[in-house]
# Entry
Amino acid sequence: MDHHHPYLIGDCLIHIFTFLTEDDLISASTVCKDWYEAAETPWLWRRICLQRWSFCNLAALGGDHLNHSWKRYFQRRCHLEKNMTQGRSGHYTCKSLRGHTGRVVGLVYLQGNSSLMPDLSKSSAVVCSASTDGTVRAWNIQNGENLWCSPVQSPLTKIIVDEKQEVIITSDFAGLITTWQGQTGQQLASFSTASSHCTLLQYNINNNWFLTVGTDQGSICTLADLTLTKTSSLMVCDSFRVDILLVSPDKKWIVAGTKEDADLSLKVIYSESLTSPSEDEGTMCQSVPVPGCQAAVFIPTQPARLAIIHHTELRGNKALTVFDVSIKKMKYKTEIQVQQVETFSLTLNSFSSHILLEAKNSNCIVLAAEEQLMVYSLKGALLASFKDHSRPISSICVDSFRVVTASQDLSLRVLTWKNDPDNGLTLESQYHLLGGSQTMSRGFTHVSCDYSSIVGSVEGNNGKDVLKAYSFTS
# Structure
């Protein structure tokens, strides 16, 4: 080494250290002063962070010194993920959120920690829950505080959220659609559908806000802006409840349909036909060429790729079929194309009626039926299968780090994603989170999670449901 040019020593060491793992890099920093200074180079830790997570929110570390911020970010996020993976006592806190006097029909994160760019300094998350007691409640899940409660109305049936606008949307048994300001609980607007059960879908197109509502009469109604101004109405499955309502990642397509009739198919609708209808052109709509849909999901990493679980010609058997949706312009007309990409049979219990389906990425589908959780590739390969629960799975939550399943056996099961050298992406089962006593409760009914917390609703034997909030520490 040329001690007259110390920067050469540093440059050489930094280059050599790029071949080390993070653990080896920390060990190397204890050797001597030169090694320490080289191992603390922000660029090295930035490189390690981006290789592991792709996206990093360095602003989460506030005013820390730049020379230590990337290293500290790596250490704190690794510590948090270790806690979330192990789920040991002391790695998380659990709060019971009590206040509802009826059944919880849904829960959503109003303010959460993004799984793509988590904020490690964030100390609180806000969850909103809706109940048959006719109220919406907002909770700080870290300290268990009830932030606000809406006025009592008819029993609520659904709740969704627009996190960007911090707006809560609910439907009640009288068919009233209501929007609430998330910070205060103030009612913003309402719209009556005269439908006792509604399915809700909120989306934004070119910064314009829309809400499409599926009714129990088989129609969908599209409302614009937070004023809930009606723009269109369309019949999609006459006399059957619309219980499937999806929007494609590119926001060009709405999928609507029912699970109640094995002979009906889902409808694919050009979203502009609903949000900006034209009397001259009419609604652009096309049936998916398979009947008897049981579950459906758009692949989040594709513009408009749709996966559907449906009945086959053999009674009781089910298949998963993947379609690409596109638009074809011809000389005198424009039409929707729904083209099959893949199809394969599923090894499900023929009596399975409650099927949950989520998509991880372009080649990974997660489905739950009865007590079983399965991971399939879009080519039909069974990547993983689990039967960790003793009773049926009631709800699942899928993000970039883990899958959480809620069950009627009064437990949540946490599974984490891992890359297998031979089989690629798969799941690894980790641990249970228990929801309480069987003498007091009947099981979990809903689950939702952000990057550093999990919230589930527990059905109480006395008719009063409770939320269980698990917050992990970094």
